[in-house]
Design goal:
By secondary structure, the chain is an alpha/beta fold. Helices cover 43% and strands 14% of the residues. A seven-stranded parallel sheet has the order 3-2-1-4-5-6-7, sandwiched between helices. α1 packs across α7, α3 runs parallel beside α4 and α4 runs parallel beside α5.
Protein backbone atom coordinates (compact mmCIF):
# COMPACT_ATOMS: atom_id res chain seq x y z
CA UNK A 1 0.00 0.00 0.00
CA UNK A 2 1.13 3.55 -0.75
CA UNK A 3 1.25 5.09 2.73
CA UNK A 4 1.76 8.58 1.35
CA UNK A 5 -1.78 8.89 -0.04
CA UNK A 6 -4.58 8.96 2.56
CA UNK A 7 -7.69 6.83 2.56
CA UNK A 8 -10.95 8.77 2.71
CA UNK A 9 -13.75 7.22 4.80
CA UNK A 10 -17.10 8.97 4.86
CA UNK A 11 -19.20 8.77 8.00
CA UNK A 12 -16.40 7.52 10.26
CA UNK A 13 -17.22 9.17 13.58
CA UNK A 14 -18.71 6.06 15.21
CA UNK A 15 -19.18 2.30 15.08
CA UNK A 16 -17.87 0.50 11.98
CA UNK A 17 -16.45 3.56 10.23
CA UNK A 18 -14.58 4.63 13.36
CA UNK A 19 -13.25 1.10 13.88
CA UNK A 20 -11.94 0.87 10.31
CA UNK A 21 -10.31 4.30 10.56
CA UNK A 22 -8.53 3.28 13.75
CA UNK A 23 -7.30 0.01 12.28
CA UNK A 24 -5.90 1.83 9.26
CA UNK A 25 -4.15 4.31 11.55
CA UNK A 26 -2.70 1.34 13.48
CA UNK A 27 -1.02 0.32 10.22
CA UNK A 28 0.45 3.77 9.65
CA UNK A 29 -2.05 4.60 6.91
CA UNK A 30 -3.03 8.31 6.75
CA UNK A 31 -6.79 8.76 6.99
CA UNK A 32 -9.27 11.49 6.13
CA UNK A 33 -12.78 11.06 7.54
CA UNK A 34 -16.03 12.91 7.05
CA UNK A 35 -18.57 13.49 9.79
CA UNK A 36 -22.04 15.00 10.01
CA UNK A 37 -22.03 15.86 13.71
CA UNK A 38 -19.40 16.00 16.43
CA UNK A 39 -18.90 12.77 18.34
CA UNK A 40 -16.40 11.51 20.89
CA UNK A 41 -14.76 9.24 18.33
CA UNK A 42 -13.61 12.23 16.30
CA UNK A 43 -11.39 13.44 19.13
CA UNK A 44 -9.73 10.03 19.23
CA UNK A 45 -9.05 10.18 15.50
CA UNK A 46 -7.74 13.74 15.66
CA UNK A 47 -5.36 12.86 18.47
CA UNK A 48 -4.00 10.08 16.25
CA UNK A 49 -3.39 12.40 13.31
CA UNK A 50 -6.46 11.83 11.17
CA UNK A 51 -7.92 14.74 9.20
CA UNK A 52 -11.61 15.22 10.02
CA UNK A 53 -13.84 17.16 7.62
CA UNK A 54 -17.44 18.17 8.24
CA UNK A 55 -19.84 17.08 5.51
CA UNK A 56 -23.52 17.60 4.80
CA UNK A 57 -24.67 15.25 2.06
CA UNK A 58 -28.35 16.25 2.31
CA UNK A 59 -28.07 18.47 -0.78
CA UNK A 60 -25.76 18.86 -3.75
CA UNK A 61 -24.25 22.11 -2.48
CA UNK A 62 -23.06 20.29 0.64
CA UNK A 63 -21.59 17.45 -1.42
CA UNK A 64 -19.68 19.81 -3.71
CA UNK A 65 -18.43 21.80 -0.71
CA UNK A 66 -17.07 18.58 0.78
CA UNK A 67 -15.35 17.68 -2.48
CA UNK A 68 -13.58 21.04 -2.42
CA UNK A 69 -12.48 20.43 1.18
CA UNK A 70 -10.95 17.11 0.19
CA UNK A 71 -9.03 18.67 -2.67
CA UNK A 72 -7.79 21.42 -0.37
CA UNK A 73 -6.23 18.81 1.95
CA UNK A 74 -4.69 16.35 -0.49
CA UNK A 75 -3.78 15.89 -4.14
CA UNK A 76 -3.83 12.08 -3.90
CA UNK A 77 -6.02 9.39 -2.38
CA UNK A 78 -5.20 5.72 -1.89
CA UNK A 79 -8.90 4.83 -1.61
CA UNK A 80 -12.38 6.17 -1.02
CA UNK A 81 -14.63 4.20 1.34
CA UNK A 82 -18.26 5.30 1.15
CA UNK A 83 -19.49 4.42 4.63
CA UNK A 84 -21.79 7.41 5.31
CA UNK A 85 -25.33 6.18 5.81
CA UNK A 86 -28.69 7.24 7.16
CA UNK A 87 -31.92 5.50 7.96
CA UNK A 88 -35.51 6.70 7.84
CA UNK A 89 -38.63 4.60 8.14
CA UNK A 90 -41.34 4.92 5.49
CA UNK A 91 -43.58 7.01 7.73
CA UNK A 92 -46.94 8.12 6.38
CA UNK A 93 -46.75 11.61 4.95
CA UNK A 94 -42.94 11.67 5.05
CA UNK A 95 -42.07 9.09 2.41
CA UNK A 96 -41.00 11.53 -0.30
CA UNK A 97 -38.67 13.49 1.97
CA UNK A 98 -37.20 10.31 3.43
CA UNK A 99 -36.54 8.82 0.01
CA UNK A 100 -34.94 12.02 -1.27
CA UNK A 101 -32.65 12.25 1.76
CA UNK A 102 -31.49 8.64 1.52
CA UNK A 103 -30.96 9.01 -2.22
CA UNK A 104 -28.70 11.99 -1.50
CA UNK A 105 -26.64 10.19 1.15
CA UNK A 106 -26.45 6.69 -0.33
CA UNK A 107 -26.33 7.45 -4.07
CA UNK A 108 -25.85 11.09 -5.00
CA UNK A 109 -22.93 11.71 -2.65
CA UNK A 110 -20.96 8.61 -3.73
CA UNK A 111 -21.78 9.33 -7.38
CA UNK A 112 -20.52 12.91 -7.28
CA UNK A 113 -17.53 12.19 -5.05
CA UNK A 114 -16.44 9.36 -7.35
CA UNK A 115 -16.79 11.53 -10.44
CA UNK A 116 -14.95 14.53 -9.03
CA UNK A 117 -12.30 12.73 -6.97
CA UNK A 118 -11.30 10.00 -9.43
CA UNK A 119 -8.39 12.20 -10.44
CA UNK A 120 -7.03 12.01 -6.90
CA UNK A 121 -6.93 8.22 -7.24
CA UNK A 122 -5.09 8.28 -10.58
CA UNK A 123 -1.55 8.48 -9.20
CA UNK A 124 -0.16 5.36 -10.81
CA UNK A 125 -0.36 3.16 -7.73
CA UNK A 126 -3.04 0.92 -6.25
CA UNK A 127 -6.38 2.73 -6.03
CA UNK A 128 -9.79 1.64 -4.78
CA UNK A 129 -13.35 2.77 -4.24
CA UNK A 130 -15.42 0.73 -1.77
CA UNK A 131 -19.17 1.20 -1.32
CA UNK A 132 -20.66 -0.01 1.99
CA UNK A 133 -24.11 -1.29 1.09
CA UNK A 134 -26.49 -3.50 3.10
CA UNK A 135 -27.59 -7.13 2.97
CA UNK A 136 -31.20 -5.88 2.79
CA UNK A 137 -30.71 -5.23 -0.94
CA UNK A 138 -30.78 -8.99 -1.50
CA UNK A 139 -34.51 -9.27 -0.76
CA UNK A 140 -35.86 -5.77 -0.15
CA UNK A 141 -37.80 -4.63 2.90
CA UNK A 142 -41.53 -4.13 3.39
CA UNK A 143 -40.95 -1.68 6.25
CA UNK A 144 -37.94 0.19 4.88
CA UNK A 145 -38.58 0.39 1.14
CA UNK A 146 -36.74 3.66 0.51
CA UNK A 147 -33.68 2.64 2.51
CA UNK A 148 -33.38 -0.70 0.72
CA UNK A 149 -33.86 0.91 -2.69
CA UNK A 150 -31.18 3.55 -2.14
CA UNK A 151 -28.69 0.94 -0.94
CA UNK A 152 -29.50 -1.19 -3.98
CA UNK A 153 -28.78 1.83 -6.13
CA UNK A 154 -25.39 2.12 -4.45
CA UNK A 155 -24.63 -1.48 -5.41
CA UNK A 156 -25.48 -0.68 -9.03
CA UNK A 157 -23.08 2.28 -8.89
CA UNK A 158 -20.41 -0.27 -7.94
CA UNK A 159 -20.91 -2.07 -11.26
CA UNK A 160 -20.99 1.06 -13.37
CA UNK A 161 -17.97 2.75 -11.82
CA UNK A 162 -16.00 -0.52 -11.85
CA UNK A 163 -16.46 -0.71 -15.62
CA UNK A 164 -15.82 2.99 -16.15
CA UNK A 165 -12.69 3.36 -14.00
CA UNK A 166 -10.91 0.09 -14.82
CA UNK A 167 -8.08 -0.72 -14.93
CA UNK A 168 -6.64 2.18 -12.93
CA UNK A 169 -9.18 2.08 -10.09
CA UNK A 170 -10.89 -0.99 -8.62
CA UNK A 171 -14.46 -0.45 -7.44
CA UNK A 172 -16.13 -2.93 -5.10
CA UNK A 173 -18.73 -3.11 -2.36
CA UNK A 174 -19.41 -4.69 1.01
CA UNK A 175 -22.96 -5.66 2.03
CA UNK A 176 -23.16 -6.29 5.78
CA UNK A 177 -26.05 -7.75 7.72
CA UNK A 178 -25.98 -7.70 11.54
CA UNK A 179 -22.49 -6.68 12.63
CA UNK A 180 -22.88 -5.31 16.15
CA UNK A 181 -25.83 -4.56 18.39
CA UNK A 182 -26.63 -1.19 19.88
CA UNK A 183 -26.42 -0.92 23.68
CA UNK A 184 -30.20 -0.35 23.89
CA UNK A 185 -31.10 -3.57 22.03
CA UNK A 186 -32.96 -5.89 24.42
CA UNK A 187 -32.46 -9.63 24.81
CA UNK A 188 -35.51 -10.58 22.76
CA UNK A 189 -34.43 -8.41 19.84
CA UNK A 190 -30.93 -9.86 19.98
CA UNK A 191 -32.27 -13.41 20.02
CA UNK A 192 -34.48 -12.83 16.97
CA UNK A 193 -31.71 -11.02 15.07
CA UNK A 194 -29.16 -13.77 15.67
CA UNK A 195 -31.65 -16.40 14.51
CA UNK A 196 -31.78 -14.80 11.05
CA UNK A 197 -28.34 -16.07 10.04
CA UNK A 198 -26.88 -19.55 9.67
CA UNK A 199 -23.86 -18.69 11.83
CA UNK A 200 -25.93 -16.99 14.52
CA UNK A 201 -23.27 -14.68 15.95
CA UNK A 202 -22.63 -10.98 16.48
CA UNK A 203 -19.25 -10.82 14.72
CA UNK A 204 -18.18 -7.27 15.56
CA UNK A 205 -16.75 -4.58 13.26
CA UNK A 206 -13.51 -6.46 12.63
CA UNK A 207 -15.23 -8.54 9.93
CA UNK A 208 -15.93 -5.41 7.89
CA UNK A 209 -12.33 -4.32 8.26
CA UNK A 210 -11.21 -7.76 7.11
CA UNK A 211 -13.44 -7.44 4.04
CA UNK A 212 -12.12 -3.95 3.36
CA UNK A 213 -8.55 -5.14 3.78
CA UNK A 214 -9.18 -7.95 1.29
CA UNK A 215 -10.54 -5.54 -1.32
CA UNK A 216 -7.66 -3.11 -0.85
CA UNK A 217 -5.00 -5.81 -1.04
CA UNK A 218 -6.36 -8.01 -3.83
CA UNK A 219 -5.41 -6.78 -7.33
CA UNK A 220 -7.79 -8.96 -9.35
CA UNK A 221 -11.25 -8.12 -7.97
CA UNK A 222 -13.49 -5.32 -9.25
CA UNK A 223 -17.24 -4.87 -9.69
CA UNK A 224 -17.95 -7.26 -6.81
CA UNK A 225 -20.04 -6.78 -3.67
CA UNK A 226 -18.97 -9.01 -0.78
CA UNK A 227 -21.84 -10.34 1.33
CA UNK A 228 -20.82 -10.24 5.00
CA UNK A 229 -24.05 -11.64 6.37
CA UNK A 230 -23.31 -14.78 8.38
CA UNK A 231 -25.24 -16.91 5.90
CA UNK A 232 -28.55 -15.03 6.06
CA UNK A 233 -29.28 -16.10 2.50
CA UNK A 234 -29.35 -19.72 3.71
CA UNK A 235 -32.18 -19.27 6.22
Amino acid sequence: MDHRAPILITGASQRIGLYCAQRLLDEGQPVIVSYRREREGLDILRQRGAITLHADFSDNAGIFAFIERIKAHTDQLRAIVHNASDWHADEAGQQAAAFQHMFQVHMQAPYLINLHCAGLLRHGGAADIVHISDDVTRKGSRKHIAYAASKAGLENLTLSFAADLAPAIKVNGIAPALIQFNPQDDDEYRRRALAKSALGIEPGPQVIYQALRYLLDTPYVTGTTLAVNGGRHLI
